[in-house]
Amino acid sequence: MGERRSKGVTSRRVFSSVGPFLLGATSLLTACTCLGLLLFQASQIHRMRQELSELKARFTAEETDVSRCGVDLLDHLGWHLSQILSTIGSVPAPPSYDCSETQDQDGGRRRRETTLRDGARKRQCQPGRGRRSFLHLLPLSSNSYDEEDKTLLKWTQGQSQGDGLQLLGETVTVTTAGHYFIYSQVLYMESTYVMGHLIKKRVDGNETSLMKCIKSMPEKGEHALNSCYTAGVQYLESGSVLELSIPRKKAEVGLQHHATFMGLYRL
Asked: According to the lineage, what is the superkingdom (predicted)?
């Protein structure tokens, strides 16, 4: 019994003397590991700073050449940033820019722009070239042809451009052939059951109705107001004569410029 007690006391004394040593060694090892990690991180940060400084110096030196070559500086900077993010190792060489090729392209582009400007200026100097003919007509009076049971409108020129259309009283003569957009509106002011008008074309002795507009009218005279509008695209030969014809004699129409009008322009 005495021997066992003495052995137990001895083992406790040995553990109590060795335990603090092991704890201190573990703490020292942990501290050394943390210090090593900090030193490693510091070295990595220092290397990254050096690489960024080199890139900054290189980018500053190349900025003039990049601008002279006409390369977007944002794209150039973006390339460097992408390289930094993709690798932290060796610094890659920046992309090279062939200034001679870019300058040749710029020279060719400038020559083309100059040629286009000169051509546009020459076209503008030529009378009537590039200007589309149009004619907007406003009513002056209405003329009734009783024997033909029709009413024609006498027009005055509101707006016009070009020499392709000529106004002569009640008719318009086309001097430049082509496709034309034709529009017309008439304000009717009578209680006849139906009112309307035709756009007619005469060329080479032949007469053709191009467009027709028909409107029902109110029965009561005080409310007998109605507008009829029609429009469309037609091909008109050179020498064509157009007129707006109302197939009713003594037709009562409004002659206000905003209510009754006619026009056409070349497409």
From this structure: Eukaryota
